Amino acid sequence: MDVLLTSTAEAFRLLFSGNPEIWEIVGISFRVSSMAILAAVPPALVIAFTLAYGSFPGRRFLISLFNTFLSVPAVVIGLTLFIILSRQGPMGDFKLLFTQTAMGLGQFFLCLPILVCMAHVSLQAADRAAWETARTLGANRLRAFFTVLYEIRFGLMAALLAGYGRIISEVGASMMLGGNIAHYTRNIPTAIALETSKGAFAEGIALGIVLLFLAFVLNSLLQYVQGKGSINP
Amino acid sequence: MIEDFRIGFRDISKSFGSNRVLEQTAISIASHDCIVITGNNGAGKTTLLRIIAGLEKPGHCEISLDDASPEPWRRLRKRLLKSVMYLHQQPYMFAGSLLRNIEYAARLNPALADRESSVQKAISWAGLDGLESQSAASLSGGQKQRVALTRARLCHPQILLLDEPTANLDSESRERTLQMLREFRDSGTAIVIVTHDPGVFSDLATSKLHLQDHRIKADDIWAADVVELDSVRQSKKR
Amino acid sequence: MFRKALLVAVSLLVMGQASADASLLRLATTTSTANSGLMDLLLPKFTAETSIEVHLIAVGTGKALRLGREGDVDIVLVHARAAEDAFVDAGYGTDRAEVMYNDFIIVGPETDPAGTAKSNTVAEVLQRIHASEKPFISRGDDSGTHKRELFLWQSANKSPDGSWYREVGQGMGKTLQIANEIDGYTMTDRGTWLAYESKLDIQLLFEGDPPLFNPYGIIAVNPERHPDVNYTGAIKLIKWMTSPAAQKMIGEFKIKGQQLFVPSVGNAS
Fold first, then answer.
1. Which of C14, C26, C192 is the closest to A98 by Cβ?
2. Closest CA relative to residue A23, chosen from A168, A203, A170
3. Under a CB-based contact definition with an 8 Å cutoff, are residues C218 and C67 in contact?
4. Residue spans of chain C under pLDDT 50
5. Cβ of A150 under 8 Å from any chain B Cβ?
6. A124: exposed, middle or buried (C-beta count within 10 Å: 0-12, 13-18, 19+)?
7. Which residues, listed in sequence order, are joined to residue A94 by a DSSP beta bridge?
8. Do domains C22-102+215-263 and C104-212 have the same CATH topology?
9. CATH node for C104-212
10. Which CATH superfamily is domain B6-90+158-237 in?
11. CB contact under 8 A, A101 and C196
């Protein structure tokens, strides 16, 4: 109990005294995760759209495949990418292992299935007539695509928040692909793992508080967005 | 005004899985036409409209424009989407205000000279003045129908397809819809209406077709009055 | 289309990174080394002198050597003498140098139910634990510490098996915490022990026997095997680490007033 109290008190002191190392770690987390999700959104939307409105052989199979990817543990994605990006792997020449790019790639593949599945569900729940009305009014595919996206914007926001929530707090893949290099690929979750292993609980708790706060903000936004979505589907 | 045209759809076939809906049937549509199509539930009326609109891929279909040699549906699909307008039974309202819904259509028609005044004119034409900022989702069924027709008007379609346009309307809205459709027809737009209630359109219709056994038949049933049509339906049910 | 876009994006990122190569050195080391804080003291000085930035990747010894073998890092700093020699003999590494050593210690419950404190050698300690069948927590993660522990059991002519011997597959800190919770014995490096000591009830019971000394070797990844590793940078780091200045810093590095590492150069035992 004593350890918990003193560590938590120290954690708050670290956070609010503007400890540069901690805030640098927070910054790296946000930068990498934001890039990853921004990169994942366009392909995820295209895939979700194809799955929802396309008709081609293997469509059902792909849908269940993406749903399966939802529950693939992060370390499995991490390990797979590790093998691919390692110098002896097929993409070894790119020298990506232990870079922010590798970490971002891991997070990209972690949030892609979430974005695809949640966007797909939103698209299925949306009236197909939205797409058809846009098309019959003379909108080209791209225009109709954006029209429908706007119609399901609340569902998409929810997907975005859920995807972000997963990757910002993910430790396994980031540790494996980024290598937890100080000032470079050390993000919030890998730093927590490190500080804990060093016995520096206060630093771990301080970063945990940042994550907790972030999770709270994301969840509140999610609640708000979903509430909005149900009023005006 | 719409220039005179004639579009022939030939050899239309469509199945959903093993369920055959349309089989080698044909329909010809020309400017100023108002074609009323009847048929039992599940006869394929909606499917036929959606094929004509370019929304539903047919198993087979050939199209000839103004007596040119026929081309496959696939090749003309883009044209159909541009020049044919399909109105859902329950018109879809985009998120946002009534004005946004109508401006959306106006923006898609590059031929509109003065967009803002065209939109205003169209709104007045439909009697929707004062409702511009209202959320489209909260409009009544009749108002939504009129928004859909206003959107259609701004697109100047060659063909306007309506799926049960009066099914859920009170008599006043129905009159209004008929009046608006008449103006479409007079401006040269061809209208194709699928309905269970052909009597409503008797003044407007220029020809009447019946869809049965996967085929469009010229309408011998039509000559008989609605009562008789009902008896046909009844006998089908049995 | 999407795959193409991804490839283009990746190649763009790569081009940005490849240019910085000569001034970047990737060093894989063990978690305990990184956690001690010694490298945080040394590496910035090295960077200041040579303008070579060092990316420190902390993993287990087994993983560190593997990263070197695959050419994913330029240089490794580990403490597992037998594995290091095998690494060099197989041609994966070159220019091995001894940098420093620290020592392992045996910790356990204050009551010392196995009576280990009376031992004269670490072999005797292990024999007593073995005979008493009191819980012993093993890293069980193929780390340098784990390898050393297994070697010591072998030297003591005892095979660690039975329900009293528990392999946890965790890092040193976690292992210490587990030992603390279940009143078990374990072997730890002194650095991790000093970091955790104040949070634990278990006590230092045995230290100082030469088999517990733990030499650290630094090895460059062989450029003949991986032509694009930063070999020049690696050699610079090896020279620097064994230089008198760095060796002095290593000797003066202290945690809670205790010296953690003994420099190897000019100190060879």
1. C26
2. A203
3. no
4. 1-2, 12, 14-20, 268-269
5. yes
6. middle
7. none
8. yes
9. 3.40.190.10
10. P-loop containing nucleotide triphosphate hydrolases (3.40.50.300)
11. no
Is A190 in the C-facing interface, judged by CB distances under 8 Å? no
A133 in contact with B, Cβ within 8 Å: yes
The distance in angstroms from the start CA to the end CA of chain B is: 47
The Cα A152–Cα A162 span in angstroms is 16
Alpha carbon separation from B165 to A183, B91, B138, B194 (Å, rounded): 65, 9, 19, 8
CA distance B15 to C158: 78
Counting residues of chain C whose pLDDT is more than 90, the rounded percentage is 62
Inter-chain touch C70–A87, beta carbons under 8 Å: yes
Residues of A in contact with C55 (CB under 8 A): 98, 179, 181, 184
Please state, in angstroms and as integers, the Cα–Cα distance from residue A54 to each residue in A79, B44, B57, C19, C142, following that order: 33, 22, 12, 43, 50
Partner B, chain A 108-127, Cβ-Cβ below 8 Å: 127
CA-based nearest distance A9→chain B, Å: 49
Give the pLDDT means over successive 10-residue stretches in chain A (233 positions). Answer: 78 83 91 96 95 88 93 91 89 88 96 95 90 93 93 91 92 91 91 82 86 87 74 42
Q: Which residues of B touch A127 (CB under 8 A)?
A: 92
DSSP 8-state symbol, C211:
G
Enumerate the residues of chain B whose CB falls inside 8 A of the CB of residue A154.
none
Question: Can you give the residue ranges of every domain in chain A?
Answer: 2-231
Residues of A in contact with C71 (CB under 8 A): 87-88, 92
**Does residue C195 belong to the interface with chain A, where contact is any CB pair within 8 Å?**
yes
In this complex, which chains have at least 3 CB pairs below 8 Å with chain A? B, C
CA distance C52 to chain A (A): 15
Name the residue ranges covered by the structural domains of chain B. 6-90+158-237
> What would the CATH number be for the domain defined by A2-231?
1.10.3720.10
- Top-level class of domain C22-102+215-263: alpha beta
User: CA nearest C32: which of C55, C58, C56, C57?
Assistant: C58
Contacts of C70 in chain A (CB under 8 A): 86-88
Asked if ipTM goes beyond 0.95, one says no
- Give chain C's length: 269
